[in-house]
Amino acid sequence: MSANWCGILAQTVTSSKSTTDALNSILNDDDKAGDQGDPNGDRDANGDGKGGGKGNGSGTGVGNYQLAGRKVIAKPQPRYTCNEQGTVVVEISVDQNGRVISATPGVRGTTNSAKCLLDQAKQAALNTKFDSSDAAPEKQVGKIIYNFRLTE
After folding, report:
1. pLDDT at residue 33 above 90?
2. What is the pLDDT of residues 99-136, one digit of tens each?
3. Distance, CA of 74 to chain centre
4. Residue 85 pLDDT greater than 90, yes or no
5. pLDDT at residue 31 above 70?
6. Which comes out higher in pLDDT, residue 52 or 145?
7. In whole angstroms, what separates CA 45 from the centre of its chain?
8. Are the C-beta atoms of residues 77 and 62 closer than 8 Å to each other?
């Protein structure tokens, strides 16, 4: 063999041996316990990768009432029945007496369309009362924006 081939063959054997040694040290290291993680760790921290989390919570749903020329008299808060948060926009139709006669939750601007949020937003909207107005149209359209937030 020429000198060049011997040098290449020696490099190949050396690389192969170091790769084999590295794999053997990983595969045969039975004395070291694996890292199972820390349930109280911070998942955003740099370091050993320990982490965990909690899934319980309560929340609120605060409304923003938008109906041109009308004031809100009764503002029932939606019940908080699930572990979700986000904005639910409800399109409402209000009669001249200030009664909400229809409510459609989940219209444009909604950021979370979880059924539990939509149902509670609709119920709260239907129970909302505005001031009466003889000058208002027979059916006036507006919206209520509920911001559901998880609290601790």
Report:
1. no
2. 999 999 999 999 999 999 999 999 999 999 999 999 99
3. 30
4. yes
5. no
6. 145
7. 21
8. yes
Rg of the chain on CA atoms, in Å: 32
Return the beta strands (E) in 67-110 as ranges. Answer: 72-74, 86-94, 100-105
Q: How many CB atoms lie within 10 A of CB 31?
A: 5
Specify whether the CB–CB gap between 64 and 78 falls below 8 A.
no
CA angle 117, 121, 124 (to 5 degrees): 140
d(CA 106, CA 91): 8
Angle (nearest 5°) at CA 128 between 126 and 130: 125
Q: Which residues of 52-63 are buried (b: 16+ CB within 10 A; e: fewer)?
A: eeeeeeebebeb
Amino acid at 19: T
Residue 94 to residue 91: CA distance in whole angstroms: 10
| Cβ-based neighbour number of residue 133 at 10 Å | 17
- Tens of pLDDT, residue by residue over 65-79, are 888 889 999 999 998
C-alpha torsion sign, points 63, 66, 71, 76: negative
Whether residue 3 has pLDDT greater than 60: no
